[in-house]
Amino acid sequence: MNPTLLEIIQTHGNGTESTCYCELTSSSVPTGKAELKEGFFFLLVTNGTAQLADEYQTYELQPAHLVTLTPSTKCMIQATSSHFQSMLLYLKPTFFDSLPDGQPLYEQLAHYLGHYQLPVFLLENEQATYLQKIFALFAPCRKNAVNYYDSILNHLCSFCLLQIADILTQTRHEVPDYARRSTDIFRLFKKTLMENYRQHHDIGFYAESLHISTTYLSRIVKHITGHTVRFHISELLCADARKLLECTNLDIKEIAEKLGFSDQSVFGKFFVKKTGLSPMKFRTQRERDKKNYPFPDAEGS
């Protein structure tokens, strides 16, 4: 059985449960084959060649080729040259969905969903070089960031996704009307969600704000992301809660109020369900981690 690309980069790369970065070479793919599925993959070829194939066609990859895959895409690296090298970034779907800046990229990929064509782009040399510099920032990030690693990683991922989206806007194509309508609604939903998730935890508010039914909103969000509206709300609330617990001195009751929960008990049950830890245990654990992993010295040792 061929390994998945995620299994390979988790072995050879560095990252977290949500993201992983790896500099992939021909020696990293033991049989010359690897499946790509169930995640957001961004592969930038820097040297050599490779064959990428789905059930419809085969793509010959060369330096400056960028491959951008969504969770609904399944394909396989079938062969690599002996000098093959690439930079590879993986984002877990739930993490991608929590990033407000992921939607512009998804809109650029909408043309390829269901059209029997993989999102494979040959970049201009200047674009490829610039993107290489951005990808390279992921390698030292894990080592050099401690107290604010989660926030730094979020911003770095958003920056990278926006830059890729900006590059893809220069590829001229028409997005089908049905895809444009759905992505427009989803974009407005994410914008409304980012502005209101602390105060409004119910789908009815967002459907009413967009002047559509809750059923229609649920269908669009589920189709585009594979997750429910409630899931998107809870992911933002949980990420915010983790940041407030880790980076502020607010007590649990104050955090519960700031995030729009009716009381501390309801917030506590929500947080345990999402993380497996109570808010207090999470805060204690993060404080212990900071003591065990202090900042590196001036020389990076």
From TrEMBL:
Q: Where is the HTH araC/xylS-type domain?
A: 187-285
Pfam assignment, any one:
HTH_18
Look up the domain of life of the source: Bacteria
Alphabetic keyword roster: DNA-binding, Transcription, Transcription regulation
InterPro entries, alphabetically? Homeodomain-like_sf (IPR009057), HTH_AraC (IPR018060), Tscrpt_reg_AraC-type_HTH (IPR020449)
- SUPFAM superfamilies per record: Homeodomain-like
Q: Which GO terms describe its molecular function?
A: DNA-binding transcription factor activity; sequence-specific DNA binding
Q: Supply the name of the protein.
A: AraC family transcriptional regulator
Organism placement in taxonomy: Bacteria, Pseudomonadati, Bacteroidota, Bacteroidia, Bacteroidales
